[in-house]
Amino acid sequence: MTPHFGLPEFGFLLRGLQWTVLLTLVAFAGGCTAGLAVALLRTCGHKGVEWATRIYIGIFQGTPLLLQLFVVYYGLALTGLKLDAFVAVAIGFTVNASAFLGEIWRGAIEAVPRGQTEAAMALGLHYSSRMRDIVLPQAIRISLPATIGYLVQLIKGTSLAAIVGFIELARAGQIVSNQTFQPLLVFGVVGAMYFILCWPLSWWGSRMEARLALASQR
Amino acid sequence: MGYTLDFSVVWHAMPALLWGCVGTLGLALAGMTLAMVIGVAGVAARDSKAAWLRAIVIGFVEVVRNTPFLVQIFFLFFALPLIGLKLNPTATAIIALGVNGGAYAIEIIRGGVQSIHKGQVEAGYALGLHKGQVFRFIVLKPALRAIYPSLTGQFIMLTLTSSICSAVSAYELTSVAQRIESDTFRSFEVYFSVTFLYLAISWLLMLGFAAISHRFFSYPTR
After folding, report:
1. pTM of the complete model
2. Domain named ABC transmembrane type-1: which ranges (chain A) (predicted)?
């Protein structure tokens, strides 16, 4: 007997949605921390370090997220550490996020007018205070639309955890679809759940972008 | 412990992997071609007088851009047979890539068309150019130039996205890699090497696109 798509199946999808949100939050938090380090190294002024971070970013931008996940997932398995699937994929997404956010914030840091840094230097502020109090607050404002854009990418990207077997929303959808033989309904619902998650963020991001564009026109 | 890396399996499988690269490029090229068709048609429909047509295009773009490609390809995989299209996985993957890329292409092309100032067209007519010339030299070429970086960037992204088509076992690099992995159990070695094959593909594409841009679009604008 095949079950129909009913409340229990919907509940299963909702639990998958929970894992999608959790995975996104963990990877975004980790990616923000590591991405800030990448952005600062990328703009530190030391040629060798800047090149190294540039290559790091280039590798993540030039390869498929799915393959990055595979490499991290199977690479971690080789180290002999017995990691939970959630931890393994979270590490994969965090590393990816660090490269993309690092590049976004590099652009934002460089978009802050040079005079701001020069004025801070003239006032005798050292590097950490110059960054923390002068440059980064302005850079964050500039980078917000792109950062939100990446967050949407990340939510959609977590669906790839399904392929390495972690049960989040997309994998839950596959399972329910195989049980109920109602793939169109199930993937329709799954798609709608992703849409409800992503669309408000996209809308917010593009509205902010329009506002920033208006502000910089003056 | 005691695991020693063995890349010789990758070396032996290199011919199959290189054919996988060809498959990936073919898939991406076919997908991008379809995406361009959808993109141009979508832009025309997006600015049409019929409100319902505009609404459909806007809805299409928003839905595609705010849902994962994996869910899209699964949906199409089951939906296409229902409308009478019984296709093999590779053809399904091409349609999925085309639909996905098309939504992004609509936004990009629309931006390019909007970047052409109306005064430029009027100036063209004032200089005595006929309609075909105005379209070719004043609308098409500058618009292409304006959208070229984002369009080629999108093409590279689509090439990387095509790896997800392995989920419906379309013929491309990642599915070839998965087959080799299940034959040899050398997961890390295979995927590590394949990652760098993708990197090589995207670098080659980037270089190629830069060369084309240099050949056709390097003229002064002021």
Report:
1. 0.90
2. 17-202
